[in-house]
TrEMBL record:
It is found in: Cytoplasm, Cytosol. It catalyses: Thiol-dependent hydrolysis of ester, thioester, amide, peptide and isopeptide bonds formed by the C-terminal Gly of ubiquitin (a 76-residue protein attached to proteins as an intracellular targeting signal). It comes from Chunga burmeisteri (Black-legged seriema). This is Josephin-2. InterPro entries: JOSD1/2 (IPR040053), Josephin (IPR006155). Gene3D superfamilies: 3.90.70.40. The gene is Josd2.
C-alpha cells in the first residue's frame, strides 16, 4: 500500500530479509489506531509518562551473520519492548524468548544504555488519543 506503483518494495531490504523501514511500522500502527512517536534523545527519560505508553520500538545497530559466522558488517534491527503484569520485556526476535528487563527504573536504564551507544532510535507506541493530547510526556 505504501508504494503501489513500485516494482520493488522501497520500504524493504533488497535481499528480501525483512528490515522494513519506519514507514511500514507507522502505517501498521495507524491501522490499529496507534501511533509511533520518535523520542528526542535530548530529553530526560524521566519525562516519559510510562502509564500512557503501550510499548517501545527501538532501531539499533546489529551484527550481520551467515549461520554461525559473524560478518564485519552492521545493519539496523528493530526490537520491541512491552510491559506485562508490571514487568517490561525485551521482545527482540533475535532472542530465543522474551527477556525480562524489570520495572520502570530498569526500563529507563535499559533505554539509557541503548541511547548512549549512539545510532539508536527509540519510538514510543501510544494510542492516537495519547499522541494527540501529548500525554506521553510528563511536565518538566
Amino acid at each position: 500500500r505504501l508504494a503501489p506503483d513500485a516494482r520493488l518494495n522501497p520500504h524493504r531490504s533488497l535481499l528480501g530479509t525483512g528490515n522494513y523501514d519506519v514507514n511500514v511500522i507507522m502505517a501498521a500502527l495507524q491501522s490499529l489506531e496507534l501511533a509511533a512517536i520518535w523520542w528526542d534523545k535530548r530529553r530526560s527519560l524521566e519525562r516519559l509518562a510510562l502509564g500512557q505508553i503501550l510499548g517501545f520500538i527501538l532501531n539499533v545497530p546489529s551484527h550481520v551473520s551467515l549461520g554461525f559466522v559473524a560478518l564485519p558488517l552492521r545493519r539496523k534491527h528493530w526490537l520491541a519492548i512491552r510491559q506485562f503484569h508490571g514487568t517490561y520485556y525485551n521482545l527482540d526476535s533475535k532472542l530465543r524468548a522474551p527477556v525480562p528487563i524489570g520495572g520502570e527504573v530498569e526500563l529507563r536504564a535499559f533505554l539509557r544504555d541503548f541511547l548512549s551507544q549512539g545510532l539508536c532510535e527509540v519510538f514510543l507506541v501510544v494510542p492516537r488519543a495519547v499522541e494527540e493530547a501529548g500525554a506521553w510526556l510528563s511536565p518538566e
